Amino acid sequence: MSMYVRVFFTASIALALLTVPLKELCAQVPDDIFDEEPVSSGPPLPDPFETFNRYMFDFNDQLYEDLIQPAANFYTDVVPAAPRRGIANFFRNLGYPQRFVGNVLQGNFDGAVLETREFLVNSIAGVGGIFDAAGTAEVEHFHAESLDRAFATWGVGPGAYLVLPFIGPTTIRQSVADGLSSYFLYPPAYLNETAYRVAVGAFDTFQQTPRLMDNYFSVRDGAIDPYIAVRDYNWAFRARGLHDRETPASVQFLHQHQARPDKHPAVGDTTHPAAKRQLPPRAQRPAQRRWH
Amino acid sequence: MISAYNKVFTILLFGSLCTFAAFADTPKEDPAPALQANIEGAVAMLSGKSPEQTEAMLPELRAHMGETFAIEVLVQRAFGRNWQRFNEAQREEVIDLLGRLLLRQYAAHIASGATPEMTIRTSRPIGPNRWEVISTITYQRERIEVIYRLAPIDGSWKVYDIIVEGANLVGNYRSQFDAHFQRRSVAELFDMLREKIREVAVES
Questions:
Q1: pLDDT of A110-151, one tens digit each?
Q2: Which of A111, A125, A171, B138 is a plausible cystine mate for A248, CB 3.0–4.6 Å?
Q3: A39–chain B nearest CA distance, Å
């Protein structure tokens, strides 16, 4: 027996004997885990106005803390949950034109039909949208279609990150899209009296503040640099909605809430049988998004 | 010359043993049920508790969550290349501080609000020693997608990355730490973390 064979056998025996103690000496964490980059929703958002944005962020932060959050708390304390839900349902129903147009401009006609069906059911059987007759308002439309998403589909980049007074984080593209939406696609904008238009719009925004403030403060309070935390969370959240294009957002949403969880495909999981059923033929789907 | 061969052989042997030990430790079972049970256990521990009770429960909560969350790995990944700035003692301290901050914030949120419900949507291997669990958390009428990435750590599947509605927890903190170290020092970071922990404790 050669020396090398003896060494090999000795090593094998040693290996068998030493495995347990060596487990204590060896790192129990895969080495490559520290080289693996965190999963990202896309390229970072340009922030050329950071100095201005940080100033506005501090202004808004103070405003939210001193005024908006107390008002939101007062609203949730005074108005019981059921009426608040009815109010939220009503205003969500009013957002139908924005979602419908957003779907159509992206060529997502499945989504447009589903939104229309939901709107009609809620408007008729749900008494103007107060009751969630379609059963879809139990869960918010996180990534509801909008003009901003349509612009992104067309290849319009976000421009740059902006923090606007009162409104908070947005992008140049989104602020333009939201401005157009609120002027043309928001039904209260067609009220005759300016005072009514402003009052209804303001109340719509106000009734959303408890949820928005909760989200804002939960991100801010755990952050080392709240400005960056809010900016990146906000951007990742929006970008994720824009990237999940295999199944239209509204179709995903409706199917997710209507069927049992185990029958749902994961977002982007096109291998799931249910995902295959939901997807229209590739030729009928909107072109893959160009992002940025 | 013989001594050099011995060294090489020893290194190779040790490397082989480590590889063997690592593979021997890669769990085979689906980690989703254990992850869900762990999270639901944490929620049950915290639901309806007063801030004082929550505060007293933090060490127990940390031990409980440590069964499926690799807190040390999450913290180290959050620092990325900035991890090299710390000495050994600082590393231990920063793991403790950031871990406490995250746990306090999580605990305060759960204890004061509605009880979140977790549903596993997909659980699948995404590599030889990686697993992905896609879940939906229903919380205050909102449905939130939370993706957990797991790796075999200390003999079982543990979470090393969390993505909430597309926002990566590790990536978000890494951006913050990168920005911090462009202008500030390690000592200032420690002061800031301690202050944050105090703030979260007071607010809760």
A1: 889 988 998 999 998 888 888 887 776 555 445 578 899 899
A2: A111
A3: 6
CA distance B165 to chain A (A): 6
Q: A28 contacts in B (CB within 8 Å)?
A: 22, 25, 153-155
Residue of B nearest to A38 (CA): B171
Closest CA to B31 of B112, B137, B148, B195: B148
Helix (H) or strand (E) holding B144: strand B142-153
* A11-32 residues labelled b (16+ CB within 10 A) or e (exposed): beeeeeebeeebbeebebbbee
B126 by DSSP, 3-state: which? Answer: strand
Q: How far apart are CA A125 and CA A132, in angstroms?
A: 9
Q: What is the pLDDT of residue B142?
A: 77
pLDDT band for A285, please (50, 70, 90 cuts): very low
Amino acid A218: pLDDT: 85
Q: Is the pTM of this model over 0.80?
A: no
- Residues B155, B133: contact at Cβ < 8 Å? no
> Judging by DSSP bridges, how do beta strands B142-153 and B156-164 pair with one another?
antiparallel
Decide if A218 and B154 are in contact by the 8 Å CB cutoff. Answer: no
Residue B116 pLDDT > 90: no
ipTM of the complex: 0.81
Per residue, what are the HEC states of chain A? CCHHHHHHHHHHHHHHHHHHHHHHHCCCCCHHHHCCCCCCCCCCCCCCCHHHHHHHHHHHHHHHHHHHHHHHHHHHHHCCHHHHHHHHHHHHHHCHHHHHHHHHHCCCHHHHHHHHHHHHHHHHCCCCCCCCCCCCCCCCCCCCCCHHHHHHHCCCCCCCEEEECCCEEEEHHHHHHHHHHHHHHCHHHHCCCHHHHHHHHHHHHHHHHHHHHHHHHHHHHCCCCHHHHHHHHHHHHHHHHHHCCCCCHHHHHHHHHHCCHHHCCCCCCCCCHHHHHHCCCHHHCCCCCCCC
- A83: confidence class by pLDDT, cuts 50, 70, 90: very high
What type of residue sits at position A165? Answer: P
In this structure, which amino acid lies at residue B103?
A: L
